[in-house]
Amino acid sequence: MFTIRPRGISPAGCRGRSNRRSWHRNFTSRHVKPFLDRGGDPSNAQYFEFGAGWDLFANFVLYCYGFDHQLLVDLTPRARPFLINDVIRELRDKGRVELPGACRRPEWEGRR
């Protein structure tokens, strides 16, 4: 399972707060749900993503569903702590993003 995203997208243009919920539903239904429906064990799966992006949203969603082994590679360091912390807060607070079937949520924020 891997995701291809267009190059050169700004953090606001990729997944602003207003469209994260729809992006999450699409990502979950196209990638996570089929894997789980086929009997896949996320705790033993290895996920690789080339081009991790600005906020690591997909990777935190996978974490919530039990994917413990993730390898992220990005040639240009784009991840921003304030965007990552925003994603953690959004996923941690129940009701902001639906996570049907998720086994956990992020519990802490990193440095700013």
Q: How many separate helices?
A: 4
**For the CA atoms, what is the radius of gyration?**
13 Å
Terminal CA distance: 31 Å
Largest sheet: 2 strands, parallel
Q: State the helicity in percent bands.
A: 25-40%
Give a count of the beta strands, DSSP E runs of length 2 or more: 2
Strand order of the largest sheet: 1-2
Low-confidence stretches: 1-13
What string gives the helices and strands in order? HHEHEH
Protein model, in words:
This protein is mainly alpha-helical. The protein has a domain of 56 residues. Helix content is 38%, strand content 9%. It has four helices and two strands, in the order H-H-E-H-E-H. A two-stranded parallel ribbon has the order 1-2. Helix 2 crosses helix 3 and helix 3 runs parallel beside helix 4. The longest helix has 18 residues. The protein is globular, with a radius of gyration of 13 Å. The termini are far apart.
Summarize, please.
This protein is mostly helical and 112 residues long. 38% of the residues lie in helices and 9% in strands.
Features of the shown structure:
112 residues; 2 strands; 9% strand; globular
Helix and strand arrangement:
Layout: H1 11-15, H2 20-37, E1 46-50, H3 57-64, E2 69-73, H4 81-92
Parallel strand pairs: 1-2
Helix pairs in contact: 2-3, 3-4
